[in-house]
Amino acid sequence: MEFSSENTWMDLEQEETEGKQVIVGVCAMEKKTLSKPMKEILTRLEEFEYIKTCIFTEKVILEEPVEKWPLCDCLISFHSKGFPLEKSITYANLRKPLVINNLESQFAIQDRREVYRILSTAGIDLPRHAVLDRDLPPEETNFEEQDDSVVVNGVVFNKPFVEKPVDAEDHNIIIYYPASAGGGSQRLFRKIGSRSSVYSPESNVRRAGSFIYEDFMATDGTDVKVYTVGPDYAHAEARKSPALDGKVERNSEGKEVRYPVILSNKEKLIARKVCMAFNQTICGFDLLRANGRSCVCDVNGFSFVK
After folding, report:
1. What are the backbone dihedrals phi and psi of residue 146, each rounded to the nearest 5 degrees, phi first?
2. How does DSSP assign 59-121, residue by residue?
3. Distance (Å, rounded) from C-alpha 116 to C-alpha 108?
4. I need a surface site. Which of 21, 184, 246, 279 has the fewest CB within 10 A?
5. CA 139 to centroid of chain Cα atoms
6. How far is residue 136's CA from residue 286's CA, in Å, rounded to a whole number?
7. Burial class (CB within 10 angstroms; exposed 0-12, middle 13-18, buried 19+) of 290
């Protein structure tokens, strides 16, 4: 290009950047990258002239060294079962793309103890809880079970209370009911067909494994799912709580029925705090509304709006 007095620096910059595409790399397990929500996101990104998407195949992620992974300017990468998070961190350190969701922080999201610690440090309201860590020497833990309560390291939880595995990938959560309500327990799990929980007559807590015990918060029968896109935007939906009867409500297309929710100013601030505390631009978390309180009970990191 020949420079003349009629040219401006803006013209020069336009010349230099014209045709330059930003490559957005998507590095996750195929179950996530090939899902309908992800396909919808990528289709919309592709509508921008200067954005090109590149999905890292599962074979490349699992078998190839990071030096052979595709190059990208911006990286969307998130953990799910079987994903080599350490490897993706090595790739990010090597190529230094703009990382949408901080990778190191995703280790904390896999451990409910760490999740609750980070939430507490950030000043975010939580259900009253205590941790029973059976990985510690027996003399360092104190656990006692009675008919209608448990004592965890000196903290008493009367039924109904919730028992959550410390492993965030384990969705086998149990709610225990008092004898006055008929006893037994409601056993929650990842959705299987049209069910997300089942009632059991079993009233005794689990004796193997580490758990978080917390007060059961009686909501209006719904859970609120919140999704942040950066600290200044959050989308929220309500769904029927799996603790009710365990039957998943689905529409004519087979999707779980969800209802739009308007967050209060306080809840918007909670969303901002969660997003920043976990360094996750795209961050899904669960909110319980009960007795005038809004408590965070789970943080999932990168999540799709269903």
Report:
1. -120, 180
2. HHHHHS-GGGSPP-SEEEE---TT--HHHHHHHHHHH-PEESB-STHHHHHTBHHHHHHHHHH
3. 10
4. 21
5. 34
6. 29
7. middle
d(CA 254, CA 190) in angstroms, rounded, equals 16
Rounded distance, CA 9 to CA 15, Å? 10
Distance spanning both ends of the chain, measured CA to CA: 50
Cβ pair 280, 300 in contact under 8 A: no
Residue type, 187: R
Task: Give strand pairing partners of 224.
Answer: 238, 287
CB 296 within 8 A of CB 126: yes
Q: How many C-beta atoms surround the C-beta of residue 303 within 10 A? A: 18
pTM for the structure as a whole: 0.89
Q: What is the pLDDT along the chain (306 residues), one digit of tens a residue?
A: 444 445 554 554 555 555 689 999 999 999 999 999 999 999 999 999 999 999 999 999 999 999 999 999 999 999 999 999 999 999 999 999 999 999 999 999 999 999 999 999 999 999 999 999 999 998 999 999 999 999 999 999 999 999 999 999 999 999 999 999 999 999 999 988 889 999 999 999 999 999 999 999 999 888 999 999 999 999 999 998 888 878 888 887 778 888 999 999 999 999 999 999 999 999 999 999 998 999 999 999 999 876
